[in-house]
Amino acid sequence: MKTWKNCSNPGPPLVLWRALMAGCCLWLLVLPAAVSQQLSPKVSAAAGASANLPGGGYMAWTVGETVIFTGETASHFMTQGFHQPDWLLTAVEEAKNLPWQAALSPNPAGSFIEMSVLAETPADWTAALYAADGRFLGKQSATAARTTFRFEVGELAPGLYFLTLTSGGRVGAYRFVKQ
Q: Which of 174, 154, 178, 158 lies closest to 166, judged by CA?
């Protein structure tokens, strides 16, 4: 009767044990990689943020690059600098039936833009300045029935800009051109 102890040939038990261990180690290395792989849009950006919104929504934003490259294969593509996997167009419309009157001057603007606001009763006002690409550029607040907000815009590039006026949960958006 042959025993496998003290033998130069390790025999079936040791060979099977080594094969089983090698297979388990291989699965331990491959399985997590296979399970953790995702095929969803990923963003690597210089700046940005994301947040879960009340009611189950999600919002994310990034600062894109001005020079982009798109690489493609037969089944995938990657574009640098864009965080818009789905297009969502938002229009800025003239506000109607607001409980105030507002006027911008001068329009087109040179070194400054003023927003004059008039309401029947005193209110808390917030005026915010935005570039056409949505960048926030500044805000001012006041409490009065009549007020004027003045924003210095001389250093801004020529183009289209927006001032929003918020009071009592209502928002009005007003366009102006910077020369």
A: 174
Question: What is the reported pTM?
Answer: 0.50
Q: How far apart are the first and last CA of the chain?
A: 102
Written as tens digits, the pLDDT of the chain (179 aa) is 555 555 555 555 666 656 666 555 555 555 555 554 444 555 555 566 677 777 766 666 666 555 556 667 777 656 555 555 454 445 555 566 788 999 999 989 999 999 999 999 999 999 999 998 888 999 999 999 999 999 999 999 999 999 999 998 888 889 999 99
- Reference 172, options 119, 120, 133, 135; nearest CA is 119
CATH 3.40.630.120 fits 100-178, yes or no: no
Per the structure block, which two tokens stand in for 14? Answer: 């040791």
d(CA 70, CA 58): 26
Question: Contact 158/178 with Cβ under 8 angstroms?
Answer: yes
